Amino acid sequence: MTSPTEPHRHDVVIVGGGAAGLSAAVTLARSLRDVLVIDAGEPRNAPAVGAHNLLGREGVAPLDLLEAGRQEAAAYGAQIRRGRATTARRTPDGFDVTLADGDTVTARRLLLATGLVDELPDVPGVRELWGTHVLHCPYCHGYEVRGRRIGVLATSPNALHQTLLLRQLSADITLFLHEAPEPDDEAWVQLEALGICVVTGQVRELARDGDCLRAVVLADGHAFAVDAVAVQPRFVARGDLYEQLGGTLTENPLGRHITRDPAGATDLPGVWTAGNAGDLSAMVGASAAQGVMAGAAINADLVMADVHAAVQARATARRS
Question: Where is the chain membrane-spanning (predicted)?
Answer without folding.
Answer: none
